[in-house]
């Protein structure tokens, strides 16, 4: 048995959650439900305009949220990312310590931690303006090969491909360590623009991966096809195992040669972000703990439903109980 069930490689971001009415959101002129990178000054102006809202801070990032989910269910997790030694970075490091997750790199002195202002509107959409700051400095020198060797699975965040000069080197280093030590590799698209814009690097990593997580739009971007089912079928030629989530239409799962479709659990969403992160973390927890893939996917769907019925991209309590309910 290895020391960790799951080690993630991704952007370390502190989510700054701000709830706005439609009347407040409209004048911003933002495309609803999008994520855009921004400079720190622009992000600070946005926060200043709504300072009376008292935003809530939550340590995260896409794959970081998946590692947190796995850890909350009882998995042993580690995470590779970069934070600064400012208030946000120290908050991030402390939260991961409380969650019993090994955050493998110390805060970088004098650097600014990445933050994501997440604007949540009454329709449950989340519109994000992200300042990557030092999280975008993640490079091959920050990748601890020994920690990857000590993990059952390495989970790579697609957003890291968007930094060719640093992040793509970190991915190559991590994949090399995984392949040299029998660590299985899971990859997430993160967003359809990743395979569209950074297709060569993404597909090179996909060819070395054991499992791909993506939503319907991302699956079409990777494998073509008119819908989730067609893209899922096409992925068979590209990666041994795949999960394609399709919102209220459930998820397609191929794992160890068997395939299934798992229906979604109906709900009234409050914040749509975080469902995919939770699904991936819960599914990886399941398969590292001897749970059949179909059962793990059903439980992952249930936990994803629980996430989107509250504000924030991860659960703060009840994860183990929800997992037990879904696995009955």
Commentary on this structure:
- The chain is α/β, with parallel strands linked by helices.
- Helix content is 38%, strand content 22%.
- The protein has a nine-stranded mixed beta sheet, with helices on both faces. Strands 3-8-7-2-4 form a five-stranded mixed beta sheet.
- A hairpin with a 5-residue loop joins strand 7 (114-120) and strand 8 (126-131).
- Helix 3 (62-72) crosses helix 11, helix 9 packs across helix 10 and helix 11 (275-288) packs antiparallel against helix 12.
- The protein is globular, with a radius of gyration of 18 Å.
- The two termini are 27 Å apart.
- The mean pLDDT is 94.
Properties at a glance:
328 residues; alpha/beta; nine-stranded mixed β-sheet; five-stranded mixed β-sheet; 13 helices; globular
In short:
With 328 residues, the protein is α/β, with parallel strands linked by helices. It contains 13 helices and 14 strands.
Distance between the termini: 27 Å
Encode the helix/strand succession as letters.
EEHEHEHEHEEEHEHEHHEHHEEEHHH
Strand order of the largest sheet: 6-5-1-9-10-11-12-13-14
Cα Rg: 18 Å
- Mean pLDDT figure: 94
Structural class: alpha/beta
Q: Tell me the helix content.
A: 25-40%
Question: How many strand elements?
Answer: 14
Low-confidence stretches: none
Itemize the secondary structure elements and their pairings:
Elements: E1 4-9, E2 13-19, H1 22-25, E3 35-37, H2 40-49, E4 56-60, H3 62-72, E5 77-80, H4 87-98, E6 102-103, E7 114-120, E8 126-131, H5 145-149, E9 151-156, H6 167-180, E10 184-188, H7 193-197, H8 199-206, E11 211-215, H9 216-223, H10 228-235, E12 241-245, E13 251-255, E14 258-262, H11 275-288, H12 293-308, H13 319-327
Parallel strand pairs: 1-5, 1-9, 2-7, 3-8, 5-6, 9-10, 10-11, 11-12
Antiparallel strand pairs: 2-4, 7-8, 12-13, 13-14
Helix pairs in contact: 3-11, 9-10, 11-12, 12-13
